[in-house]
Amino acid sequence: MDYIELDLHITPNKPWVDIAIANLAELGFDSFVENENGLLAYIPKNNFDESIVNEILIDIMDVEVVYQSSTRLIPHQNWNATWESEFEPVHVADKLSILAPFHEKKDANDMQIEIMPKMSFGTGHHETTQIMCEQMFDVNFHEKKVLDMGAGTGVLAILAEKLGSKNILAVDIEDWSAENIVENSHRNDCSYIESRCGDIDCISENGFDIILANINRNILLSQLPVYSSKIKKGGTLMLSGFLEGDVDILTNEASNNGFEFLGKKNKDVWFSLVFKKR
Predict the structure, then answer these.
(1) What is the CATH number of the domain that holds 69?
(2) Closest-CA residue to 163 (of 181, 146, 150, 180)
(3) What pLDDT is recorded for position 233?
(4) Which class for 278: exposed (0-12), middle (13-18), buried (19 or more C-beta within 10 A)?
(5) CB-based burial of residue 73 (10 Å sphere; 0-12 exposed, 13-18 middle, 19+ buried)?
(6) What are the tens digits of pLDDT across the range 179-223?
(7) Which domain does 165 fall in, by range?
(8) CA 176 from centre of chain
(9) Bigger pLDDT: 43 or 62?
(10) Does 66 share its domain with 139?
């Protein structure tokens, strides 16, 4: 699959890079690399509409923000080289390091996840993945049944197994993400992760103890009723992939679907929420 790379230079950088990522994700951009100039955003060529992207950028940028954008075609066979040139180790607090096979491991934390970066969102660089990883250390995963929705590279599913789960379903709508989850699970010697390509309607199972969903606001809002039907009473729901302005909307909708608010966490402008099923 060919991709379009959007190279977006933004001044000032914060919080406008984060706001751009949130809005571009709504348009179908599925991978992002932040850099000193702004960000690189990637979308399948067949899904790219330059006029809509330009309209969104004009709409979201403040009058004091200066930005420039350019695009180029990334042939499928060049994707790994692109990621390898940008991908840096990620250290989550002092507990976890997310690395690629070509990274040095001498300065890594004791717990490590090795990811071969491909096209999937969730390498650990984005703030929402880091927040979810941090919060997962505060949850009991031992022998728990886990659903990772919008699993991307499988980072959260792999961490769930490392934290003690032996029954994990990792779901992503993209076939190459599902394949990447399998590869990364094997790379981390994981035995309890099932990778499945599909949307929320591909999940026939019920009785999950923990549901992880790092997606975006609109998808989370549409899927909350299904999460409610799939999770056990007393189960833990962890959501991320949204900005501060979305917190109240998601909290209220979660409450309407039988969830009790437990807490929130943020990194820069990105937030995560934790709930318990009533």
Answers:
(1) 3.30.70.980
(2) 146
(3) 98
(4) exposed
(5) exposed
(6) 989 999 999 999 999 999 999 999 999 999 999 999 888 899 999
(7) 123-277
(8) 15
(9) 43
(10) no
Show which of 82, 100, 132 is a domain's final residue: 82
Phi, psi for 49 (deg, rounded to 5): -130, 105
- What's the whole-model pTM score? 0.76
- Helix 155-162 with 127-136: angle, nearest 10 deg: 10
The total number of residues written for the chain in this structure: 278
Interior/surface letters 88-117, b for 16+ CB within 10 angstroms, e for the rest: ebbbbeeebbbbbeebeeeebbeeebbbbb
The helix or strand, by DSSP H or E, that contains position 145, with its residue range, turns out to be: strand 145-149
- From 82, 107, 138, give the residue that closes a domain: 82
Question: 211-263, pLDDT tens digit by residue?
Answer: 999 988 889 999 999 999 999 999 999 999 888 889 999 999 999 999 999 99
